[in-house]
Write a structure and sequence with these properties.
Length: 210
């Protein structure tokens, strides 16, 4: 019997997730504490946001539909924006985006305060190029971010993947952030926040660049 000829398997059309964990940087604890306080203070006073969250069945608070000026409203958000600009530029570089010398710009940025048992069902972020989340408070048991294989709709007869298989072969991947984590992905990538099983709120800031 002839020996099997050597073969290669190459990843094509790769979906990339960018992650940076910033909590170990000097002075970062103070930054996170200030951001945490500011998120809670804004949530307390933003009645339009509270009403919108309640109407939409969001268990907790989001400024998504009520405030579009967080970096102008509080300097800690201006600092966060500056930091995110750098990470998004690095991700665009990693993705080999040809931006004709331009940079992706922040289109929107909003606070999410998710109560225990709250969740955010599966969605994409239309009209954007890169989306992401910065995690402010991730108590014990808080939801991960669940990402879905963008080719799922084409998988008419694809076998399930082995549970212990490589993460890049899974159909759904849960990514567990910690306070100070930045996650970035291309805006078409469907994702969700499963039920928050923590006893405490999960605080994050999400954003779109385009
Ligand atoms: Fe999202």
């Amino acid at each position: 019997m002839t020996k099997t000829a050597p073969a290669t398997v190459s990843p094509l059309f790769v979906t990339e997730l960018y992650r940076a964990d910033l909590a170990t940087q000097p002075g970062f604890e103070d930054f996170l504490a200030e951001l945490d306080d500011t998120c809670r203070a804004i949530a307390d006073e933003d009645e339009a946001g509270q009403t919108w969250s309640q109407t939409k069945g969001y268990l907790g608070y989001t400024s998504y539909a009520s405030l579009n000026d967080l970096p102008a409203r509080a300097s800690v958000f201006a600092d966060l924006k500056a930091m995110l600009d750098t990470h998004v530029a690095a991700f665009a570089e990693k993705l080999d985006f040809d931006l004709h010398g331009q940079k992706l710009k922040l289109n929107s940025l909003w606070i999410n305060i998710l109560e225990p048992m709250g969740h955010h069902s599966s969605h994409i972020h239309p009209h954007s190029v890169v989306s992401g989340t910065f995690y402010v408070s991730i108590p014990e048991g808080a939801s991960a971010l669940r990402l879905e294989d963008p080719r799922l709709g084409f998988m008419m007869n694809a076998p399930l993947r082995k549970a212990n298989g490589r993460s890049e072969h899974q159909t759904f991947v849960n990514v567990t952030p910690q306070a100070g984590t930045v996650l970035l992905w291309e805006s078409w990538l469907r994702h969700e926040v499963p039920i928050n099983l923590s006893d405490d709120v999960r605080i994050s800031v999400s954003f779109n660049y385009g």
